Amino acid sequence: MSPALVSPARVGLDIGGTKIHGIAIGPDGAVLAEERAATTPGAEGVVKSAATVVASLRDALDDGEISSIGVGIPGIVDTRAGTVKHAVNLGLDGDAFPLAELLGARAGAVVTLENDTNAATLGAHAVEDVDDLVYLSLGTGLAAGLYLNGALRRGFHGAAGEVGHLPVDPEGPVCGCGQRGCLELVASGAALAAAWPTAAGHPAAALFAAATAGDPAAVTVRDRFADGVAAAVRALALAVDPERVVIGGGVATVGEPLREAIAAALVRQTEASPFLASLELASRLRVVSAAPVAAIGAALITPTKD
Ligand SMILES: [Zn+2]
Protein backbone atom coordinates (compact mmCIF):
# COMPACT_ATOMS: atom_id res chain seq x y z
CA MET A 1 0.00 0.00 0.00
CA SER A 2 1.14 3.49 -0.69
CA PRO A 3 1.56 5.88 2.22
CA ALA A 4 -1.36 8.09 3.17
CA LEU A 5 -2.14 10.44 0.32
CA VAL A 6 -1.73 14.13 1.02
CA SER A 7 -3.92 16.24 -1.23
CA PRO A 8 -1.80 18.68 -3.24
CA ALA A 9 -1.51 22.27 -2.16
CA ARG A 10 -3.14 25.23 -3.92
CA VAL A 11 -0.89 28.16 -4.63
CA GLY A 12 -2.00 31.77 -4.59
CA LEU A 13 0.07 34.66 -5.94
CA ASP A 14 -0.66 38.30 -5.23
CA ILE A 15 1.28 40.09 -7.97
CA GLY A 16 1.80 43.77 -7.25
CA GLY A 17 3.86 46.49 -8.86
CA THR A 18 6.79 46.06 -6.47
CA LYS A 19 6.46 42.58 -4.98
CA ILE A 20 4.87 39.18 -5.37
CA HIS A 21 3.42 37.52 -2.29
CA GLY A 22 2.92 33.78 -2.70
CA ILE A 23 1.17 31.34 -0.42
CA ALA A 24 0.48 27.60 -0.50
CA ILE A 25 -2.58 26.32 1.33
CA GLY A 26 -3.64 22.77 2.11
CA PRO A 27 -7.08 21.24 1.51
CA ASP A 28 -8.21 22.46 4.95
CA GLY A 29 -7.14 26.03 4.20
CA ALA A 30 -4.07 25.90 6.43
CA VAL A 31 -1.11 27.95 5.20
CA LEU A 32 1.70 25.49 4.34
CA ALA A 33 4.27 27.88 2.90
CA GLU A 34 4.73 31.57 2.18
CA GLU A 35 7.23 33.41 -0.04
CA ARG A 36 7.87 36.98 -1.14
CA ALA A 37 9.94 38.26 -4.03
CA ALA A 38 10.44 41.50 -5.94
CA THR A 39 8.44 41.90 -9.15
CA THR A 40 10.49 42.38 -12.29
CA PRO A 41 8.35 44.51 -14.61
CA GLY A 42 7.66 43.64 -18.23
CA ALA A 43 6.22 40.52 -19.85
CA GLU A 44 9.22 38.24 -19.38
CA GLY A 45 10.02 39.70 -15.96
CA VAL A 46 6.54 39.16 -14.49
CA VAL A 47 6.34 35.55 -15.74
CA LYS A 48 9.86 34.79 -14.50
CA SER A 49 9.45 36.36 -11.05
CA ALA A 50 6.06 34.64 -10.58
CA ALA A 51 7.55 31.28 -11.61
CA THR A 52 10.42 31.81 -9.15
CA VAL A 53 7.96 32.30 -6.27
CA VAL A 54 6.06 29.14 -7.31
CA ALA A 55 9.35 27.18 -7.39
CA SER A 56 10.26 28.43 -3.88
CA LEU A 57 6.83 27.42 -2.57
CA ARG A 58 7.17 24.01 -4.17
CA ASP A 59 10.58 23.54 -2.51
CA ALA A 60 9.05 24.44 0.85
CA LEU A 61 6.32 21.80 0.58
CA ASP A 62 6.95 18.29 1.91
CA ASP A 63 5.90 16.55 -1.31
CA GLY A 64 6.32 19.45 -3.75
CA GLU A 65 2.85 18.76 -5.15
CA ILE A 66 0.77 21.69 -6.42
CA SER A 67 -2.76 21.21 -7.74
CA SER A 68 -3.45 24.72 -9.02
CA ILE A 69 -2.11 28.27 -9.14
CA GLY A 70 -4.37 31.26 -8.73
CA VAL A 71 -3.09 34.75 -9.50
CA GLY A 72 -4.48 38.06 -8.33
CA ILE A 73 -3.17 40.87 -10.52
CA PRO A 74 -4.07 44.54 -11.07
CA GLY A 75 -5.56 45.37 -14.44
CA ILE A 76 -8.45 44.20 -16.54
CA VAL A 77 -8.51 40.42 -16.28
CA ASP A 78 -10.32 38.02 -18.58
CA THR A 79 -10.55 35.04 -16.25
CA ARG A 80 -11.86 32.73 -18.95
CA ALA A 81 -9.11 33.59 -21.44
CA GLY A 82 -6.41 33.85 -18.78
CA THR A 83 -5.29 37.27 -19.97
CA VAL A 84 -4.66 40.66 -18.39
CA LYS A 85 -4.82 44.13 -19.95
CA HIS A 86 -3.76 47.55 -18.68
CA ALA A 87 -1.56 46.26 -15.85
CA VAL A 88 0.42 49.47 -16.27
CA ASN A 89 2.26 49.19 -12.93
CA LEU A 90 3.68 45.85 -14.06
CA GLY A 91 4.86 47.14 -17.42
CA LEU A 92 2.12 45.14 -19.15
CA ASP A 93 0.33 48.03 -20.83
CA GLY A 94 -0.27 46.52 -24.24
CA ASP A 95 -2.83 44.05 -25.55
CA ALA A 96 -4.28 41.15 -23.62
CA PHE A 97 -1.28 39.39 -22.09
CA PRO A 98 -1.65 35.57 -21.83
CA LEU A 99 -0.16 35.26 -18.34
CA ALA A 100 -2.09 32.09 -17.41
CA GLU A 101 -0.72 30.16 -20.37
CA LEU A 102 2.86 31.44 -20.05
CA LEU A 103 3.11 30.96 -16.28
CA GLY A 104 1.34 27.59 -16.48
CA ALA A 105 3.89 26.32 -19.00
CA ARG A 106 6.78 27.51 -16.84
CA ALA A 107 5.36 26.39 -13.47
CA GLY A 108 3.79 23.12 -14.57
CA ALA A 109 0.29 23.66 -13.16
CA VAL A 110 -3.03 25.12 -14.27
CA VAL A 111 -3.07 28.88 -13.70
CA THR A 112 -6.23 30.96 -13.23
CA LEU A 113 -6.16 34.77 -13.16
CA GLU A 114 -8.39 37.14 -11.26
CA ASN A 115 -8.37 40.89 -10.75
CA ASP A 116 -6.42 41.64 -7.54
CA THR A 117 -9.34 43.28 -5.73
CA ASN A 118 -11.61 40.33 -6.55
CA ALA A 119 -8.95 37.87 -5.38
CA ALA A 120 -8.62 39.77 -2.09
CA THR A 121 -12.41 39.70 -1.78
CA LEU A 122 -12.35 35.89 -1.96
CA GLY A 123 -9.67 35.95 0.74
CA ALA A 124 -11.73 38.30 2.92
CA HIS A 125 -14.65 35.92 2.54
CA ALA A 126 -12.48 33.01 3.69
CA VAL A 127 -11.11 34.96 6.66
CA GLU A 128 -14.37 36.61 7.74
CA ASP A 129 -16.57 33.57 7.10
CA VAL A 130 -19.66 35.45 5.95
CA ASP A 131 -21.34 34.87 2.57
CA ASP A 132 -22.29 38.47 1.96
CA LEU A 133 -19.61 41.12 2.07
CA VAL A 134 -18.03 44.07 0.36
CA TYR A 135 -14.25 44.29 0.41
CA LEU A 136 -13.04 47.87 0.14
CA SER A 137 -9.42 48.12 -0.93
CA LEU A 138 -7.56 51.24 0.21
CA GLY A 139 -4.45 50.70 -1.87
CA THR A 140 -2.90 53.21 -4.24
CA GLY A 141 -6.43 53.60 -5.60
CA LEU A 142 -9.89 52.90 -4.21
CA ALA A 143 -11.90 49.91 -5.42
CA ALA A 144 -14.34 47.42 -3.96
CA GLY A 145 -14.96 43.73 -4.51
CA LEU A 146 -18.46 42.33 -4.07
CA TYR A 147 -19.12 38.87 -2.66
CA LEU A 148 -22.89 38.61 -2.55
CA ASN A 149 -25.13 35.69 -1.66
CA GLY A 150 -22.13 33.37 -1.78
CA ALA A 151 -20.67 34.41 -5.14
CA LEU A 152 -18.28 36.99 -6.54
CA ARG A 153 -20.04 39.70 -8.53
CA ARG A 154 -17.67 40.83 -11.28
CA GLY A 155 -20.26 42.80 -13.26
CA PHE A 156 -21.32 42.77 -16.89
CA HIS A 157 -18.12 44.58 -17.95
CA GLY A 158 -16.01 43.47 -15.01
CA ALA A 159 -16.41 46.93 -13.48
CA ALA A 160 -18.53 46.06 -10.43
CA GLY A 161 -17.29 47.86 -7.32
CA GLU A 162 -15.29 50.60 -9.09
CA VAL A 163 -16.48 53.13 -6.53
CA GLY A 164 -13.20 55.03 -6.67
CA HIS A 165 -14.55 56.67 -9.81
CA LEU A 166 -17.81 57.89 -8.33
CA PRO A 167 -17.65 61.66 -8.94
CA VAL A 168 -18.40 63.43 -5.66
CA ASP A 169 -17.05 66.93 -6.23
CA PRO A 170 -18.07 68.82 -9.39
CA GLU A 171 -15.38 71.44 -8.56
CA GLY A 172 -12.69 68.85 -7.91
CA PRO A 173 -9.60 68.10 -9.99
CA VAL A 174 -9.74 65.95 -13.11
CA CYS A 175 -9.18 62.27 -12.36
CA GLY A 176 -7.03 59.90 -14.41
CA CYS A 177 -10.28 58.34 -15.63
CA GLY A 178 -11.31 61.66 -17.26
CA GLN A 179 -14.09 62.58 -14.85
CA ARG A 180 -13.86 65.40 -12.33
CA GLY A 181 -13.78 65.08 -8.54
CA CYS A 182 -13.70 61.26 -8.20
CA LEU A 183 -13.83 59.74 -4.73
CA GLU A 184 -10.43 58.13 -5.31
CA LEU A 185 -8.84 61.60 -5.35
CA VAL A 186 -9.79 61.95 -1.66
CA ALA A 187 -10.07 58.41 -0.30
CA SER A 188 -7.12 56.30 -1.42
CA GLY A 189 -3.57 55.56 -0.38
CA ALA A 190 -2.24 57.92 -3.05
CA ALA A 191 -4.59 60.73 -1.92
CA LEU A 192 -3.54 60.20 1.70
CA ALA A 193 0.16 60.25 0.81
CA ALA A 194 -0.35 63.49 -1.15
CA ALA A 195 -2.24 65.11 1.74
CA TRP A 196 0.25 63.91 4.41
CA PRO A 197 3.66 63.45 2.79
CA THR A 198 6.35 61.72 4.83
CA ALA A 199 10.07 61.64 4.16
CA ALA A 200 10.27 58.02 5.28
CA GLY A 201 7.91 55.27 6.37
CA HIS A 202 4.25 54.70 5.71
CA PRO A 203 2.22 57.92 5.21
CA ALA A 204 -0.97 56.35 6.64
CA ALA A 205 0.85 55.21 9.79
CA ALA A 206 2.44 58.65 10.18
CA LEU A 207 -0.88 60.46 9.69
CA PHE A 208 -2.83 58.32 12.15
CA ALA A 209 -0.04 58.51 14.75
CA ALA A 210 0.05 62.31 14.47
CA ALA A 211 -3.75 62.55 14.67
CA THR A 212 -3.86 60.28 17.72
CA ALA A 213 -1.19 62.47 19.32
CA GLY A 214 -3.52 65.45 18.84
CA ASP A 215 -1.88 67.31 15.93
CA PRO A 216 -4.82 69.46 14.69
CA ALA A 217 -3.63 69.45 11.04
CA ALA A 218 -3.37 65.65 11.13
CA VAL A 219 -6.84 65.36 12.67
CA THR A 220 -8.25 67.48 9.81
CA VAL A 221 -6.52 65.40 7.11
CA ARG A 222 -7.45 62.11 8.79
CA ASP A 223 -11.11 63.09 9.15
CA ARG A 224 -11.33 64.29 5.55
CA PHE A 225 -9.85 60.97 4.40
CA ALA A 226 -12.20 59.00 6.67
CA ASP A 227 -15.18 61.01 5.35
CA GLY A 228 -14.24 59.98 1.80
CA VAL A 229 -13.92 56.30 2.73
CA ALA A 230 -17.20 56.53 4.63
CA ALA A 231 -18.84 57.96 1.50
CA ALA A 232 -17.68 54.86 -0.40
CA VAL A 233 -19.01 52.58 2.35
CA ARG A 234 -22.33 54.43 2.29
CA ALA A 235 -22.63 54.18 -1.52
CA LEU A 236 -21.85 50.46 -1.44
CA ALA A 237 -24.24 49.83 1.44
CA LEU A 238 -27.05 51.69 -0.30
CA ALA A 239 -26.38 49.78 -3.55
CA VAL A 240 -26.07 46.22 -2.25
CA ASP A 241 -26.65 46.31 1.56
CA PRO A 242 -23.95 43.76 2.48
CA GLU A 243 -23.78 41.98 5.83
CA ARG A 244 -20.19 43.14 6.32
CA VAL A 245 -17.81 45.73 4.93
CA VAL A 246 -14.17 44.66 5.13
CA ILE A 247 -11.48 47.31 4.72
CA GLY A 248 -8.16 46.10 3.30
CA GLY A 249 -5.24 47.26 1.20
CA GLY A 250 -2.05 49.06 2.19
CA VAL A 251 -3.75 51.76 4.30
CA ALA A 252 -5.41 49.01 6.39
CA THR A 253 -2.05 48.22 8.01
CA VAL A 254 -3.03 51.10 10.32
CA GLY A 255 -5.55 48.65 11.83
CA GLU A 256 -8.06 49.54 14.51
CA PRO A 257 -7.51 53.36 14.46
CA LEU A 258 -8.54 53.27 10.77
CA ARG A 259 -11.75 51.39 11.56
CA GLU A 260 -12.52 53.83 14.37
CA ALA A 261 -11.99 56.87 12.11
CA ILE A 262 -14.25 55.48 9.35
CA ALA A 263 -16.89 54.42 11.88
CA ALA A 264 -16.85 57.90 13.43
CA ALA A 265 -17.25 59.45 9.96
CA LEU A 266 -20.20 57.15 9.23
CA VAL A 267 -21.83 58.20 12.50
CA ARG A 268 -21.28 61.90 11.61
CA GLN A 269 -22.84 61.34 8.19
CA THR A 270 -25.91 59.65 9.68
CA GLU A 271 -26.61 62.34 12.28
CA ALA A 272 -29.18 64.12 10.14
CA SER A 273 -30.75 60.96 8.74
CA PRO A 274 -32.69 58.50 10.88
CA PHE A 275 -32.92 56.38 7.71
CA LEU A 276 -29.12 56.11 7.32
CA ALA A 277 -28.69 55.70 11.08
CA SER A 278 -31.10 52.73 11.02
CA LEU A 279 -28.74 50.91 8.64
CA GLU A 280 -26.07 50.74 11.40
CA LEU A 281 -23.23 50.94 8.88
CA ALA A 282 -20.50 51.52 11.46
CA SER A 283 -21.19 48.20 13.15
CA ARG A 284 -20.66 46.30 9.88
CA LEU A 285 -17.05 47.49 9.46
CA ARG A 286 -13.99 45.29 9.86
CA VAL A 287 -10.35 45.98 9.02
CA VAL A 288 -8.10 43.17 7.82
CA SER A 289 -4.59 44.39 8.51
CA ALA A 290 -2.60 41.23 9.13
CA ALA A 291 -4.23 38.45 7.16
CA PRO A 292 -2.69 38.17 3.68
CA VAL A 293 -6.15 38.10 2.13
CA ALA A 294 -4.98 38.84 -1.42
CA ALA A 295 -2.72 35.77 -1.66
CA ILE A 296 -5.14 33.52 0.25
CA GLY A 297 -7.95 34.61 -2.06
CA ALA A 298 -5.79 33.98 -5.13
CA ALA A 299 -5.23 30.39 -3.94
CA LEU A 300 -9.01 29.98 -3.62
CA ILE A 301 -9.80 31.14 -7.17
CA THR A 302 -11.87 28.50 -8.90
CA PRO A 303 -10.96 27.87 -12.53
CA THR A 304 -13.68 29.12 -14.87
CA LYS A 305 -15.13 26.42 -17.09
CA ASP A 306 -17.07 26.85 -20.32
ZN1 LIG B 1 -11.97 58.75 -11.75
TrEMBL record:
<dbReference type="InterPro" id="IPR043129">
    <property type="entry name" value="ATPase_NBD"/>
</dbReference>
<dbReference type="InterPro" id="IPR000600">
    <property type="entry name" value="ROK"/>
</dbReference>
<dbReference type="Pfam" id="PF00480">
    <property type="entry name" value="ROK"/>
</dbReference>
<keyword id="KW-0418">Kinase</keyword>
<dbReference type="GO" id="GO:0016301">
    <property type="term" value="F:kinase activity"/>
</dbReference>
<keyword id="KW-0808">Transferase</keyword>
<protein>
    <submittedName>
        <fullName>Putative NBD/HSP70 family sugar kinase</fullName>
    </submittedName>
</protein>
<comment type="similarity">
    <text>Belongs to the ROK (NagC/XylR) family.</text>
</comment>
